[in-house]
């Protein structure tokens, strides 16, 4: 895809590795952003003197970012994070993300790594023992909260210098939120989901997922300009679930009952049951897509087709036809970025 920012070669941190960048070997796979991954060999497991590599998990609201990767004259997730680390350690750092996200795409958990050399501020040139991860998390969050507060470090771990956040990732999970209903979208949901005024047929969408999950040529779900050599991917999971809309506050009838069926909930949210100033709630459907890697914009193109099935504009046979067409022109319009969330990046940690 990316569900991730422009996959053209980055002008930021991904274009320059450390001076000890090891030799490259044959490319074996492509990453989620449509760029080919490179496996590395010859990496020394002996840390460079005084330098500690940290694995950093972050969450962010993507609305005010021009994507995750650093770009000139644009506010980006990496740019804001590097600035916070600079203020903490007193020197510039380079941050490398596991997954690149487009403008407007959010992250419940993206992961990056950063190399930090702790230098004494009282005695310049004196190298001190590395900071504990908890200290890094607390200090960096202190500076992040002074810069809009739309990025937060959620976890930090010390890792060997040969552990790369992008190339060591084993699996990525994305979520996509759709809010269905004729009412205008709540201010609290602005830029957090795709508003679909029509009613969505959940069982039909779930049946469409069964056609798309698995090992396929996903050329029909690959945006123009994707740099991956192969359109073949294994989609380990693709499903649609209905969940409570958020933020969720129980009505007086719900507070008086331990549990409600979906039918009960619909009954309570009719116009006659709502008091003055009370909004009718939307249905919230979440598409989950999980794979080792994705093509450029693959998830948003998949969601576009699933939404069309949900509204009745496409049938299951149409989905099969689109998949077999092997051209993106056969697919439905791509879903907007605002509903997409990078949910989890899986590793086998040392």
Shape: globular
Q: How many β strands by DSSP? A: 12
CATH architecture descriptor of the largest domain: 2-Layer Sandwich
* Rg over alpha carbons: 22 Å
Tell me the helix content. Answer: 10-25%
Major pleated sheet? 10 strands, mixed
Instruction: Write down the CATH topology of the largest domain.
Output: Alpha-Beta Plaits
Tell me the count of domains: 2
Contiguous runs where pLDDT drops below 50 for at least 5 residues: 1-47
The helix/strand class is alpha+beta
Keywords:
350 residues; alpha+beta; Alpha-Beta Plaits; 2 domains; 10-stranded mixed β-sheet; two-stranded antiparallel ribbon; 7 helices; 12 strands; 20% helix; 24% strand; disordered N terminus; isomerase; PsdUridine_synth_cat_dom_sf; tRNA pseudouridine synthase; PsdUridine_synth_TruA
């Amino acid at each position: 895809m990316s569900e991730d920012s422009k996959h053209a070669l980055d002008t930021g941190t991904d274009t320059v590795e450390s001076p000890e960048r090891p030799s490259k070997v044959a490319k074996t796979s492509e990453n989620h952003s449509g760029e080919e991954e490179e496996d590395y060999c010859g990496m020394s497991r002996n840390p460079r003197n005084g330098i500690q590599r940290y694995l950093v998990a972050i969450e962010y609201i993507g609305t005010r970012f021009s994507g995750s990767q650093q770009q000139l004259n644009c506010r980006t997730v990496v740019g804001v994070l590097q600035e916070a680390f600079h203020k903490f350690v007193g020197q510039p750092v380079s941050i490398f993300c596991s997954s690149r996200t487009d403008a407007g795409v959010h992250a419940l958990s993206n992961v990056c790594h950063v190399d930090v050399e702790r230098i004494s501020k009282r005695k310049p040139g004196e190298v001190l023992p590395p900071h504990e991860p908890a200290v890094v998390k607390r200090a960096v969050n202190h500076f992040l909260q002074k810069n809009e507060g739309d990025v937060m470090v959620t976890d930090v771990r010390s890792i060997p210098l040969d552990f790369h956040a992008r190339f060591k990732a084993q699996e990525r999970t994305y979520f996509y939120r759709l809010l269905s209903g004729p009412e205008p979208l709540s201010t609290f949901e602005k830029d957090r989901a795709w508003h679909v005024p029509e009613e969505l047929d959940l069982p039909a969408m779930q049946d469409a997922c069964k056609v798309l999950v698995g090992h396929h040529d996903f050329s029909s779900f690959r945006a123009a300009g994707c740099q991956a050599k192969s359109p073949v991917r294994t989609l380990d999971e693709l499903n649609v679930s209905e969940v409570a809309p958020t933020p969720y506050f129980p009505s007086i009838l719900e507070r008086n009952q331990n549990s409600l069926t979906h039918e009960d909930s619909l009954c309570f949210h009719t116009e006659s049951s709502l008091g003055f100033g009370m909004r009718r709630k939307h249905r919230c459907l979440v598409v989950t897509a999980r794979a080792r890697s994705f093509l450029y914009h693959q998830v948003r193109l998949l969601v576009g087709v699933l939404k069309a099935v949900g509204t009745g504009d496409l049938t299951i046979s149409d989905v099969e036809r689109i998949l077999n067409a092997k051209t993106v022109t056969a697919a439905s319009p791509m879903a907007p970025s605002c509903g997409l969330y990078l949910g989890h990046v899986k590793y086998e940690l040392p």
